[in-house]
């Protein structure tokens, strides 16, 4: 998704802007640009379609100034071309970068055209540049102009603006899209994501909804949405800049797959003690909230949604609380019945996914008698701010667009939650809890063992080189894991993949099966194993290539054209979905490598989707 970096320093800002944009590349984008205010007080802009390196190669020596703003654009309104890339400039007097969508841009555009403004792009952002320019005619400062202009904008925005009329100032504002201010000895900075600035500073101010900040070389002044000057806390980020490098790995995704044992250890740390899950890890009032919880509604998108699907099985099975789950983009636009005493759970790696965030806000407006919990990987995010309870997945920064360690740490967090709520409802005995906690403790080693199957999986991946379709099968919670496996394959290898509950195959999808459609099945040794084995026979007799990931004790009968990969043995209902995720991640990764796709930044995708 779009990224913003900006700053004001004592030296040429251009290299820092380029470096910041490179750090935001992981979010997904299709063009980039920057503008600086030169020593002659002129806006010097450069833009390029494609990668940041194209922008870097287009920078001439004149693009040199101590103050500037930069952007990576993920196209929403208008194609990913140079003319649509940010920054947008109005009459050489205002330069802006923008994340989000201005929903009333068409109406504003018509008004501004009538006022004589000439549009050079197809974007919604250009109305911001013209709107600020118009306001600047009656204002002494850029700050006042932005304060006046934002009253026109409906929708979501994170904005950075500079102007030769008021040199030495960057004005930054946000509503619905994230924006942070980085403070350092070198100067002051803005970014849509602290990751962009980690090499420069660890000191951040996270702007709140509607805040407008006036940033100079040595000061930051913040006004809230009512124009009142406010103090916002300075936070020290615990993220390390080294955490966002690939190290010895070829891709971030590969690194993140192999980091999972440690990510899970980190997520479990201080959350279990002896044989118990610590309910207080969910918040000091979590126990009371959990005791009063009668219903659970989970909302999420993408991979996080798949984690929620698994959690539905656990929450109903272990905690015995009726649980519903829905994708956020659907939930937020209908009129769901929200029962009192519902625990509303959002799951999100970034904490910034617009659909998830807006669904939560809508629910809170509709029913005051609910509680909210977010399972999130980003401590300072819009979702953690909006939620009553926060449980952080300690996965560390996840850069690969296709989520891996965020997913397995979400599963661990949701399993801890199922036990904690179950105990509050007297559904989990001490003995059961001790067995489950023992399973948690084994997870890092079990994952390490599953990762050892990589060589076998590489061989299988080679057989996918010319495939266009694949089918993933699982039963029970493994259907959700099959969905995650199919999503991974689609995202990074561009092979069409579908997941089906194995028992549903005969009601339609079996018609798709032929020798060119590989079927990947997950076969844990659980109460549905015999049923799954029958389903596998149905598939095999239709001549498909099959790959079965099984528990060593599942004893799936070998057949021609079937590869059986034992993963590990005697997995429980919580450990099994987490462990069986690993071979599916490796399979997608190696298929993508063979197909030569852009593994970490697959086409058209964004890491954090901050627009609807
Ligand atoms: C995007 C990403 C997915 C992610 C989804 C939800 O689509 O490409 O990998 O699962 O957003 O993101 P979240 O940050 O809310 O988990």
Task: Please provide a written account of the structure.
This protein is of the alpha/beta class and 612 residues long. It folds into three domains: 3-243, Aminohydrolase, N-terminal nucleophile (Ntn) domain (Glutamine Phosphoribosylpyrophosphate, subunit 1, domain 1); 255-446, Rossmann fold; 452-612, Glucose-6-phosphate isomerase like protein, domain 1 (Rossmann fold, 3-Layer(aba) Sandwich), CATH 3.40.50.10490. 34% of the residues lie in helices and 23% in strands. It is built from 18 helices and 27 strands. The strands form five sheets. Strands 3-2-4-1-10-9-11-15 form an eight-stranded antiparallel beta sheet. A seven-stranded antiparallel beta sheet has the order 5-6-7-8-12-13-14. The chain has a five-stranded parallel beta sheet with strand order 19-18-20-21-22, with helices on both faces. Strand 21, helix 12 and strand 22 form a beta-alpha-beta unit. Helix 7 (260-268) packs antiparallel against helix 14 (430-451), helix 9 (302-319) packs antiparallel against helix 16 (477-493) and helix 16 runs parallel beside helix 18 (575-595). The N and C termini lie close together (11 Å). The protein binds 6-O-phosphono-alpha-D-glucopyranose. Residues 301-304, 348-350, 353, 356, 401, 403, 605-609 line the site of 6-O-phosphono-alpha-D-glucopyranose. 6-O-phosphono-alpha-D-glucopyranose binds next to helix 9.
